[in-house]
Structures are given as structure tokens and as C-alpha cells.
Amino acid sequence: MAENIRLEVVTPEKQVVNDRAQIVMVPGSLGEFGVLSGHTPFMTSLKTGAIHYRDQDGKDQYVFVSGGFTEALPDKVTVLAESAEKMEDIDPERAKAAMERAEKRLAQDRAKEQVDNDRAKAALERAVVRIRIAGSQ
Ligand code: ATP
């Protein structure tokens, strides 16, 4: 059987995951990719999405990630994210409130600066992805 790979997910605030996985799927900015033990080393930036991994017991685990990048080494995947939460730690009500705030901003701020629009769109994307991940429990 293939060896497990170590997965670490960290943010500036905390270590979110330190586990061993059979396979790790990462939302890279150029698309989702899978990492198995022995993978060729590479680095990529992250897209807002879910890290999906199968733990040592064969259980599927999901982790929200946004911003940052990933380094995949043959025996280890490190994800340095701006924000990250395990599926069970996502507060769906908070995400819903964030979604409504971002939608309101986008509806009101059409004439405003592009940068405000971009921020609201990014906040909306984070909220929608959190709601999707929390809803798949
Ligand atoms: P909000 O407007 O609700 O703060 P946000 O998308 O702006 O949402 P982030 O900047 O991505 O929040 O994250 C700030 C901190 O709050 C991080 O530590 C992140 O893990 C946490 N966080 C944000 N939203 C949630 C949520 N719905 N459930 C649990 N933790 C959350």
C-alpha cells in the first residue's frame, strides 16, 4: 500500500491541520490537483475552496482555505493560507451574514471604486464556499 503523506495547514493565527493523509486534493489557482506520497515537488498559489483529504482511517476530511499558497514535497504538503477552517469549525450563520453583507455591498456599490467591488466579490466567494462546505456535513 502507498505511504501516507503529511498535511499541514497553517494560517497567520493558528495551525489548522497537522495530519497524515492517503491523498490530498488542493484547490490551486490553476485548478484542483491531487497529491500522493512521492509526488514531484512543486508550488502553487491557492484559490478559495476546499482542501479534501482522506485520512489514515480512510475518512474524508474537508477544510476551507482562502488566499496563500501550497508547497508539495514528496512526503509533505504544506498549505499556508490567509484563512482556513475545518468543516466542523465553520459557523454557517456567520458565513450567511457575510454573504448578505457582500451581496448588499455589490448591489449598492456599482458606481464605487473597482477595489471595493473586488473586495466584496472575494468576501462573497469566501462566504459561498464556506456555506457549501458546511452544508456537506
Ligand atoms: P467575516 O466577514 O465573517 O469575518 P471573512 O470572509 O471576512 O468573514 P476571513 O477574513 O476569511 O473572514 O477570516 C477571518 C477569521 O475568521 C479567520 O480566522 C477565519 O478562520 C475566521 N472565520 C471567518 N468566517 C468564519 C466562519 N463562517 N466560521 C468560522 N470561522 C470563520
Written account of the structure:
This protein is α+β, with helices and mostly antiparallel strands. It has helices at residues 92-108, 114-135; strands spanning 5-10, 15-28, 31-35, 42-45, 49-55, 60-73, 76-86. A 5-stranded mixed β-barrel has the order 1-2-5-6-7. Helix 1 packs antiparallel against helix 2. The model has no long low-confidence stretch (mean pLDDT 93). It binds adenosine-5'-triphosphate (ATP). The site of adenosine-5'-triphosphate has 13 residues, from strand 7, helix 1 and helix 2.
Compact description:
The protein has 137 residues and is α+β, with helices and mostly antiparallel strands. 28% of the residues lie in helices and 45% in strands.
Structural class: alpha+beta
Enumerate how many helices there are, as a single number. 2
The beta-strand count equals: 7
**Distance between termini?**
29 Å
Principal-axes geometry comes out as elongated
Using only CA atoms, what is the Rg? Answer: 16 Å
The CATH topology of the largest domain turns out to be ATP Synthase, domain 1
Biggest sheet strand order reads 1-2-5-6-7
Strand portion: 35-45%
**What profile does the largest beta sheet have?**
5 strands, mixed, barrel
Q: Could you name the CATH homologous superfamily of the largest domain? A: F0F1 ATP synthase delta/epsilon subunit, N-terminal
- Mean pLDDT equals 93
| Secondary-structure arrangement, i.e. CATH architecture of the largest domain | Sandwich
